[in-house]
């Protein structure tokens, strides 16, 4: 797992200390987003709060060496560099050390044993505490904790691939590993805690003695993290916490949470050991929630609740938002990994049903629509696998991975939603809504990930902002500042004074634009690939390079009004994300020896490229995807071994009722 302290290959200490000195020496300059919003007529409050988010993003960037920051990330370079860095989109097979694999195998065995005994859930329908303890005994909760603190120290790529495996057995238990290790207390303490805090918290988090969660969301603070109201006031050697948190997963009495609150008006993170009993100072707020039904998701109310001052995390650079952003990236990859396992569960249940269900004297496994659904679902699974392998490897290399993790989260959650409704439900028909059916019992679980770790379209805008930030600061910020200094709100190219004011700062952009238009296209340096997948990769690279002019043209057209063009931003962002997913998927499938995986990747890429071009599917494509579906219906899709399909519900006598 990536470290943010003590590893010179990831952090640039000189740059970080320089940034700290500069921050202390002078008032913070307004961010590009803040200046743009003010010039665009937004309120000072909105501009300031957007600027706070922008500043938090800059502070996270400062934690990484320059070669691993967003501007040098594969997704960013694919659009703005002269040539796509294909080698940075190519993942390698995950090597898992024997001792780590044993923890994983033993964890799977624990869950399967409880499933067979019918003891997974307690009387409330939640994961039983005995399951949690049995998982703790085999090391499940310590996978992402360093060995020196009692954990396994698993590379994130190994952990992420294991999440997919566990999700095939139980998606909720797989999700709890991510809550605990990625967005819970493990990552904040590991990445931002001092030596004393690590020694105090991590051994208990590794052993499972203290399971954890991360408390960020509030009744009025979701996507807008600047609306936090929970406060902590220093009183002697303790902070007194007052406020309310909402929608916090994995919270019960006795857990450990990373609590985001305001200290002296600044977002901060306290590691809080929740008490074993409720009181006037702390109590849980319970409510009905359709999703996450097998785990505890609750609110927390604090009223002058004491927390030791030594529990405050103090990042070298930044504040509590910096800490929150870091862990969310890991959670986004894990969400995609969980989707890959969950969709395998859907596919494994579609196969026996398709052979059992007979209409007009023929099993629906032979029907073209059902075969197409299976082929499409297989393509989505391979795309998720590709994104997980690629993004997790980037994290292990030391990249921040902000943009790439957003791609994985959005694709995984949207693919799972589509698969559940359009492929799985429609294939099972009315039985989907029976009590006890995988779909009927879990429909909210299938849909809710679109909201987790950031709602999809909001994240698309965040992706777009990261994509254009450097380009905007380089070429558009000087123009904005010149306009502000001259008091010009609407530049007029026919006004000589406006031309004189803007000419010096506009010339660099004009130069870039001319150079980009005259740039000769070059073929990407692709590895050896099957012909069809190579063609998809070439298409993705070519189109990503063309996106630079389209995006820059949009920035130029809307100027300061771009912040209000949310639909246009999400459309451009979505197109970029799709091309990135096509590239990662084609490269991933090319190194797989299984032909079915390669065929699934091929049909996925064809479908997405046709969608981008607004073209209907060809007859050749339908023949190909239905042939793939037939192969899958015959049981030839790899990686379904640990899925236990449900029994057929409401079986019928096929002889009489077929």
Can you offer a commentary on this structure?
This protein is an alpha+beta fold and 658 residues long. The protein has a domain at 212-313: Butyryl-CoA Dehydrogenase, subunit A, domain 2. Helix content is 56%, strand content 9%. It has 21 helices and ten strands. A four-stranded mixed beta sheet has the order 1-4-5-8, covered by helices on one side. It has a four-stranded antiparallel beta sheet with strand order 2-3-7-6, with no helix packed on it. It has a two-stranded antiparallel ribbon with strand order 9-10. A hairpin with a 2-residue loop joins strand 9 (358-359) and strand 10.
Strand order of the largest sheet: 1-4-5-8
CATH C-level category of the domain at 212-313 = Mainly Beta
- Fourth CATH level, the homologous superfamily of the domain at 212-313: Butyryl-CoA Dehydrogenase, subunit A, domain 2
Mean pLDDT: 90
CATH architecture of the domain at 212-313: Beta Barrel
Shape assignment? globular
Query: What is the rounded distance between the termini?
Result: 54 Å
Query: Based on the structure, what is the oligomeric state of the protein chains?
Result: single chain
Helix content: 55-70%
Observed structural traits:
about 650 residues; alpha+beta; four-stranded mixed β-sheet; 21 helices; 10 strands; globular; disordered N terminus
């Amino acid at each position: 797992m990536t470290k943010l302290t003590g590893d010179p290959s990831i952090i640039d200490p000189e740059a970080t200390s320089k940034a700290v000195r500069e921050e202390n020496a002078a008032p913070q300059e307004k961010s590009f987003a803040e200046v743009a919003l003010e010039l665009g007529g937004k309120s000072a409050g909105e501009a300031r709060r957007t600027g706070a988010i922008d500043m938090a993003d800059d502070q996270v960037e400062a934690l990484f060496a320059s070669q691993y920051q967003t501007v040098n990330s594969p997704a960013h370079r694919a659009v703005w560099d002269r040539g796509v860095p294909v080698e940075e989109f190519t993942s390698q097979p995950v090597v898992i050390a024997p001792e780590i694999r044993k923890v994983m195998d033993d964890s799977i065995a624990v869950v399967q044993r409880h499933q067979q005994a019918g003891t997974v859930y307690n009387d409330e329908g939640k994961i039983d505490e005995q399951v949690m303890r049995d998982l703790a005994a085999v090391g499940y909760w310590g996978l992402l904790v360093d060995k020196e603190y009692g954990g396994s120290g698993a590379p994130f790529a190994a952990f992420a691939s294991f999440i997919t495996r566990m999700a095939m057995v139980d998606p909720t238990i797989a999700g709890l590993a991510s809550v605990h290790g990625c967005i819970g207390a493990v990552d904040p303490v590991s990445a931002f805690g001092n030596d004393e805090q690590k020694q105090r918290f991590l051994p208990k988090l590794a052993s499972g003695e203290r399971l954890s969660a991360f408390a960020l969301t509030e009744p009025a603070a979701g996507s807008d993290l600047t609306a936090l109201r929970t406060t902590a006031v220093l009183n002697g050697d303790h902070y007194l916490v007052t406020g309310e948190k909402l929608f916090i997963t994995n919270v019960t009495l006795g857990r450990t949470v990373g609590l985001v609150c305001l200290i002296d008006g600044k977002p901060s993170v306290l590691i809080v050991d929740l008490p074993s009993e409720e009181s006037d100072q702390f109590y849980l707020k319970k409510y009905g929630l359709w999703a996450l039904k097998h785990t505890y998701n609750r609110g927390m109310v604090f009223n002058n609740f004491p927390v030791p001052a030594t529990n405050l995390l103090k990042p070298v650079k930044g504040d509590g938002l910096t800490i929150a952003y870091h862990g969310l990236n890991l959670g986004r990859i894990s969400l995609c990994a969980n989707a890959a396992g969950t969709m395998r569960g859907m596919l494994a249940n579609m196969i026996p049903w398709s052979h059992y269900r007979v209409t007009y004297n023929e099993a629906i496994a032979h029907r073209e629509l059902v075969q197409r659904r299976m082929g499409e679902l297989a393509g989505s699974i391979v795309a998720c696998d590709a994104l997980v392998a690629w993004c997790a490897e980037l994290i292990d290399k030391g990249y921040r991975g902000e943009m790439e993790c957003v791609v994985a989260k959005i694709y995984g959650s949207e693919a799972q939603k589509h698969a559940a409704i359009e492929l799985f439900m429609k294939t099972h028909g009315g039985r989907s809504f029976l009590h006890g059916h995988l779909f009927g019992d879990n429909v909210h679980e299938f849909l809710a990930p679109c909201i987790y770790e950031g709602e999809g379209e909001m994240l698309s805008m965040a992706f777009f902002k990261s994509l254009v930030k450097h380009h905007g600061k380089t070429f558009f910020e000087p123009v904005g500042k010149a306009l502000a200094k001259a008091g010009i709100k609407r530049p007029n190219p026919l006004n000589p004074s406006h031309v004189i004011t803007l000419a010096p700062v506009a010339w660099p952009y004009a130069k870039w634009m001319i150079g980009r238009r005259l740039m000769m296209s070059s073929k990407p340096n692709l590895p050896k690939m099957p012909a069809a997948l190579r063609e998809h990769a070439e298409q993705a690279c070519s189109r990503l390079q063309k996106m630079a002019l389209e995006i820059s043209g949009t920035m130029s057209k809307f100027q300061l009004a771009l912040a209000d063009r949310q639909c246009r931003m999400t459309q451009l962002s979505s197109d970029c994300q799709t091309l990135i997913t096509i590239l990662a998927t084609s490269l991933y499938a090319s190194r797989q020896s299984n032909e079915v995986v390669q065929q699934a990747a091929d049909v996925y890429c064809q479908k997405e490229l046709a969608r981008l071009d607004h073209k209907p599917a060809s007859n050749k494509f339908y023949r190909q995807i239905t042939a793939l579906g037939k192969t899958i219906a015959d049981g030839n899709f790899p990686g379904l071994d640990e899925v236990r399909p449900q029994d057929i519900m409401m079986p019928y006598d096929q002889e009489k009722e077929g």
